[in-house]
């Protein structure tokens, strides 16, 4: 994310503080709009980052934190799946009407 996610931040900290981020093209912010469950926090990030008071690195770090929790929950849920559960899910059965 830090290396490859395209940001809408400016080319220098000074310009970013002056002009703010372009949220329309900022990929980490778009991901946060989907994965961050706290709408108030997302709005706070939108205002702070869009105005230049928050830097790109801070937004990317928050996205990494959010995605880490999401991936860990997915890993735990996947580890809880048993062969019996897979067999029951994959069994041929009539579809309900």
UniProtKB/TrEMBL annotation:
SUPFAM superfamilies: Nucleotidylyl transferase (SSF52374). It comes from the Eukaryota. It catalyses: tRNA(Trp) + L-tryptophan + ATP = L-tryptophyl-tRNA(Trp) + AMP + diphosphate + H(+). Gene3D superfamilies: Tyrosyl-Transfer RNA Synthetase. It is an enzyme of class 6 (ligase). The keyword Aminoacyl-tRNA synthetase applies. GO terms for molecular function: ATP binding; tryptophan-tRNA ligase activity. GO terms for cellular component: cytoplasm. Its EC number is 6.1.1.2. GO terms for biological process: tryptophanyl-tRNA aminoacylation. Keywords: Aminoacyl-tRNA synthetase, ATP-binding, Ligase, Nucleotide-binding, Protein biosynthesis. Belongs to the class-I aminoacyl-tRNA synthetase family. PANTHER family: TRYPTOPHAN--TRNA LIGASE, CYTOPLASMIC, TRYPTOPHANYL-TRNA SYNTHETASE. This is tryptophan--tRNA ligase. It comes from Ambrosia artemisiifolia.
């Amino acid at each position: 994310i830090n290396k490859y996610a395209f940001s809408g931040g400016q080319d220098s900290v000074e310009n970013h503080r002056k002009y703010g981020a372009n949220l329309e093209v900022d990929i980490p912010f778009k991901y946060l709009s989907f994965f961050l469950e706290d709408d108030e926090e997302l709005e706070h990030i939108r205002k702070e980052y869009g105005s230049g008071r928050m830097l790109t690195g801070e937004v990317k770090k928050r996205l990494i934190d959010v995605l880490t929790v999401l991936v860990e929950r997915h890993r735990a849920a996947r580890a809880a799946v048993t062969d019996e559960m897979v067999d029951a899910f994959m069994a041929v059965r009539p579809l309900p009407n």
